[in-house]
Each structure stands twice: as C-alpha cells, then as structure tokens.
Automatic annotation (TrEMBL):
The lineage of its organism: Bacteria, Pseudomonadati, Pseudomonadota, Alphaproteobacteria, Caulobacterales. The keyword Zinc does not apply. Pfam families: SBP_bac_11. SUPFAM superfamilies: Periplasmic binding protein-like II. Belongs to the bacterial solute-binding protein ModA family. InterPro entries: ModA (IPR005950), ModA/WtpA (IPR050682). Residues 1-23 form the signal peptide. This is Molybdate ABC transporter substrate-binding protein.
Length: 254
C-alpha cells in the first residue's frame, strides 16, 4: 500500500507540473552578435528577462567570426551583425530565415584618443606626417575595419597610413589598444566611445564622408519560432531607448 501511495503522489505531482496554471519555463535564447553590441545587448537582454522571465545568452565576436561560427553550425537562435555583406553570406548559405531579416541599427565612425591626449587638429593627417600608429579592426573580418578603410581611401590617406596601421580582432580590441597607449589613435564606432571616460573623440567625419553603417539582424532556422518575439523586442521602444543611450540609431520599421 505504501508503494501505491508513492506512485500516486508522483503521478499527481507530474500532473500539477503540466497543468495550465503552471506554464513551463522557456529555455534560454542564444544570440550571436557583433562585439560592438556587447554593452547594449547585454542591457537589453536583462530587460527582456525581467519582463518575460526568459534568459538570453549572448556570444560576441567580430562579425566575420560570428558569421563563420553560424556557417559551421553554432547553435544560435538569432544573429546580429555589423554589416550587410556578412549577413548576405549567411543568407546565401541558408543559415538564416530570409523573411526574418531586418535592418536594426545604424552607427558612425569616430577617431578616438586617450582622454589626456593633446588636440591635434586633423589627427590622421598629423599622424601621417609624424610618429605613432592608428588602430583599426582587421578590414578582412571586422566591419569597423572595413568601414575605416573605406573612409581613409575616400580621404586619400589609406596608402599613406598603411605602415602606421595596427589591426585588431574586433572593434573593442581597437579601443583597448588606445586605452593602453599602444596606439595614440583608433577608429571605432561612435557607440564604442560612449560612456568611456578614459577616451575622447578627436574627430567625427562629416555625414558626407561617413560609410553607410547598418546592423542587420535575423533568425536562424533553429530559432525561427522561439526567438521571433525577442527579435521583435529589439525593434520596440524599450530596446530603442537602450540602443540610443549607447550611441546607436535604431532603424524605423517599414
């Protein structure tokens, strides 16, 4: 009889766990994203979890590295990159749900230095004529580096500055180079200079010189159903407020 009672109790507990009044806990979402988004998305992820009870796990790296991981089968539910070509590559490989793809954010380039650095007028021209190095992301895998190359080519400084370049694995590493004094100048996104008291912006190129910096986002086939509400949340008012506070400009939904 005692064994029967234990079996009955176990069955009742199992039924209670599955009852409509006790919703099952949703598994965490996994989002792979560009390194420049780490602060903003981390804050948005916490806000999402507070509102929904569902956790979000992020994996941040340079967009090229993120895209290659997704191509290799990394278990992501959604992906946010810092330029369109890498997302095009994932689309061509069938690694994203094409109808879920959106343009999420815009950004701008700036030239940064340590907060105690002297004014240099046009810092890149001064660097070309003097000493020191300028840090940028690796143009072959880091969108910020590719955008920096595009801008410097437009200014006619790319060839001149080639011997002075220090390339980094992602845009946050560029910022670290400058903070440590390993390079007096760095070219990063405006969002990377926000809230960093030991750095300052020496130059922000005018709008006519700025590359078209767009951050696309998409769901993967694995996360097409589970992560769709989170992707929609990224376009909502709370996420937009956080993105703006970190120096990004949300793209209005069509």
């Amino acid at each position: 009889m005692r064994i029967f009672h234990h079996i009955l109790l176990a069955g009742l507990l199992a039924l209670a766990a599955c009852s409509p009044g006790q919703p099952a806990e949703r598994p965490p979402l996994t989002v792979f994203a560009a390194a420049s988004l780490s602060d903003a998305l981390g804050e948005i992820g916490r806000a999402w979890e507070d509102e929904t009870g569902q956790a979000v796990r992020f994996s941040f790296a340079a967009s090229g590295s993120v895209a290659r991981q997704i191509e290799a089968g990394a278990p992501a539910d959604a992906v946010v990159l810092a330029d369109r070509p890498w997302m095009d590559r994932l689309s061509d490989a069938g690694r994203i749900e094409r109808d879920s793809r959106i343009d999420l954010l815009r950004n701008r380039l700036v030239v940064i230095a340590r907060a105690d650095a002297p004014d240099m007028g046009d810092p890149l021209s001064a660097l070309a004529e003097g000493q020191g190095r300028v840090a940028i992301g690796d143009p072959d895998s880091v969108p910020a580096g590719a955008y920096a190359r595009e801008w410097l080519q437009g200014r006619g400084l790319w060839e001149t500055l080639q011997p002075r370049l220090a390339t980094a694995t992602d845009v946050r590493a560029v910022r670290t180079f400058v903070q440590r004094g390993e390079a007096p100048l760095g070219i990063v996104y405006r969002s990377d200079a926000e809230g960093t008291p030991d750095l300052r912006v020496l130059l922000e190129p005018p709008a006519a010189e700025q590359p078209d910096i767009v951050y696309p986002a998409a769901l993967t086939p694995k996360g097409a159903a589970a992560a769709r509400p989170f992707l929609e949340y990224l376009r909502g008012p709370r996420a937009g407020q956080i993105f703006r506070a970190h120096g990004f400009e949300p793209v209005a939904a069509p």
